[in-house]
Amino acid sequence: MDEFQYDNRIVRDFAIATILFGLIGMLVGLLAALQLVFPNLNFDLPFLTFSRIRPLHTNAVIFAFVGNGFFTGLYYSVPRVLRTPIWSPVLSRFHFWAWQAIILGAAISLPMGFTTSKEYAELEWPFDIAIAVVWVSALVNIIMTTINRRVEHIYAAVWFYIASFVTVAMLHVVNSIELPISFMKSYSVYAGVQDALVQWWYGHNAVAFFLTTPYLGLMYYFLPKAANRPIYSYRLSIVHFWALIFLYIWAGPHHLLYTALPEWAQTLGTVFSVMLIAPSWGGMMNGLMTLRGAWDKVREDVVLKFMVVAITAYGMATFEGPMLSLKNVNAIAHYTDWIVAHVHVGALGWNGFLTFGILYWLFPRLYNRPLYSTKAANFHFWIGTLGIIFYTIPMYWAGWVQSSMWKEFTQEGLLKYPNFLETVTALKPLYFLRGVGGTLYLAGFVVMIYNLWMTALKGKLVPTETAKAMPLNAIWHAEKSEYWHRRLMERKPLALTVFSLVAVAIGGMIEMIPTFLVESNVPTIASVKPYTPLELQGRDIYVREGCYVCHTQMIRPFRSEIERFGEYSKSGEFVYDHPHQWGSKRTGPDLHRIGGKYPDSWHYNHMEDPTSMSPGSIMPRYGWLLENDLDTTTTVAKIKAMQTLGVPYEKGYEHQANADLAKQESEIQERLKQSGIKTAANKEIIALIAYMQRLGTDIKK
C-alpha cells in the first residue's frame, strides 16, 4: 500500500477566493441593477457607469466566483476519486495566484475602459495570453494527476473536468485572436458576421463549458457524497457526457437568429439547441434520481436542500434554452430582459446554490468541526430562494412587456409606442423589484460568510489528510467482457482528452469554415467604405464606454423594427467592423440607423445630459467626453492595424490620416457652433459624433 497525502490548503485558498470575489461580484451586480432605476448612482464617474461595471459584474461572477468555486471542488475531489495527490503542488500554487492576479487585473482594467467589447471575453490581449497560460498549466496538472492515479477507472466527474479544460482552452484561443496596437488595445482579426459567429460560438459555450460541465462534474462527486448514495446510473452518465459535449458546441448561432448571419448557420444552431434538451435533462435526472430513498434527508440536511434546488434550476434553464432557440420564441425574447431572467436562473440557482452547498459541506471537513449554525444555513437557503424568485419573475415580466410594446401597432397601422422611452419607463418598477431580489440573495450570501467564518474560527484547518492505496500496476486487470467505454476511455486519460477535443471541435469547424471561405455568406456592398480616421477613433470611444451593453446595432427583418429603426441590417455593412457591435440587449434603442437621424447638436446635448433630449431616460451622463482631449497619437497605429486586417485604406494613408481627422473635426465643430454650442475641435465627443453620424448611412448611398 502506498501512503500519500491530500492537500487541503489549496482547497481552502480557492474557497476563500470564491467567497471574496463572489461578494464583490454580487455587490457590483446589485449596483448595476439599481443604476437602471437610479442612473445617478454612477456619481458622474466614468468607471462607475453601468456600461463599464456590467462587464465587471459578469466577469467577476463567471470567472472569479464560479471559476474559483469550480477549482475549490476540483482540487478536493480529483485527488480523492483518483486516490493520489495532485501531481504538481507548484502548478497548483501557480494556478491559484495567477488566476487571482488575472481577476484583480480585470477588476482594475474593465472600469477603466480597457475592453475588447466581446461579451464574456472583454479582457484585453495581455490578459488573454495570461489566461491561456494559466488554463493550460492547470490542464496539464489534472491530466498528469489522472495518469498517476491509483484506481483503474476514471470516474465521471473527472471526464467533465477534463472536457471543460480542453474546450475552454480551444474556445478562448480561437475567440481571442487579435492584433495588438498598444499595451491595452487590440482589434479582433475577425470582422462583422465572422466576428459575431466566433464570439457567440465562444459566448454560448463559455456558458456551457465554464458554468455547466465543470459544475456537472462537481455534482457527480459532491451530491453522492452529501447523500451517501451512489450515482443513480453510471451508464446514463456516459450518455450524458458524450451527448452533451458533442451537441453543445453547435448551439452558438441561436444567439444570432434573424440577424445578418447566414440562414443555414442559424438553422444549424437551432437544430442542435433543441436536441440539447435530451442530454441536459438526462444529467438532471441522474442527479435527482440519486436521491431515491434519501428524500427524507433533504428535509433535514441543508447541503442537500441547496443541491436539489441547484439541480432543479439547471433543469429549468436547460429546458428554457432550447425553447428560446426556436425562432418563434426567440423573436419575442431576444434583446429583452427575458434573457436576463433565463441567465440568472442558471447563475443564481444552478451555479450559486451548488457552490453554497459544496462550501457548507466542505468547511466542516476542512476545519474538523460541525457547521457553526445550521439555522443560519437554513435561513440562507430560504432567503436565497426568495431572492431568486424576486429577481427572475420581474425580469420575465419585463421581457414580455418590452416585446409586446415594441411590436404593437394601432388599428391604423402605426406603432402604438413609437417612443422607445415609453418601454423604458414602464419597466422601472420591475427593475426595482429585481434590485430587491438581488438584495435578498446578497443578504443570504453575507449570512453564509459569517457562518463559514465562525466555523473556521471554532475549528482548526486540517492542512493535509493521509490516505493509503495500492499502486495502479498492482490492481490493473482487464476483463474480456469489460464494457467498451471502460476499456477505451476510463483507463486512458490521454485518449479521453483527445476524443473530448475532437467531439467539441467538429461543430465549431463545420459552422465557421464555410462562413470564412464561401464569399456568398457575406455579400459585399459597393457603397460600404472604411471608416474615416475620426470615425475610427470615435468607434473606439464607443467601445471603451461599453455602449454595446445597452444598445444593439442589428435591426432584424421584422415590420416593427423596420418601422421603428429603419431598413434591416445587411451582412455586407459590417465588413470593416473589428470587432462587431451587434450587442445582445436593448436597454436603449438600436443604433444601426442612427446616422443622420439627428443633428450633431442633439448628440452633443444627449451625451452631456440624456434627459435634456430624452425626458425620462435612464442613461447616465457622459460629461467627460466633452472635456477629454482626443488622443490622435494612436491614429497611425490604428490605420496600420486595419490595413493589416484587410481594410482597404490606400498604401501610406496612415501619414495623411491625422490631417483628414482634423479636417472632419473642424467641420463638426462648425456645425455645433451654428447650433449655439462652442467647443474645441479636439474633444472626444467630436469623434463620437462622427462615428454616430456614420452609422447605417452607407446603404443609403
What do these coordinates show?
Helix 5 (156-175) runs parallel beside helix 7 (234-248) and helix 6 packs parallel to helix 13. The chain contains 26 helices and 4 strands. A hairpin with a 2-residue loop joins strand 2 and strand 3. The strands form 2 sheets. Strands 1-4 form a two-stranded antiparallel sheet. Helices cover 65% and strands 3% of the residues. It starts with a strand and ends in a 7-residue tail after the last helix. It has helices at 9-35, 50-82, 89-109, 125-147, 156-175, 192-227, 234-248, 263-275, 277-289, 295-300, 302-324, 327-333, 337-366, 374-407, 421-458, 472-475, 484-490, 493-517, 533-544, 559-565, 600-608, 610-613, 624-627, 635-644, 654-674, 684-694; strands at residues 2-7, 178-182, 185-188, 464-469. It is globular, with a radius of gyration of 26 Å. By secondary structure, it is mostly helical.
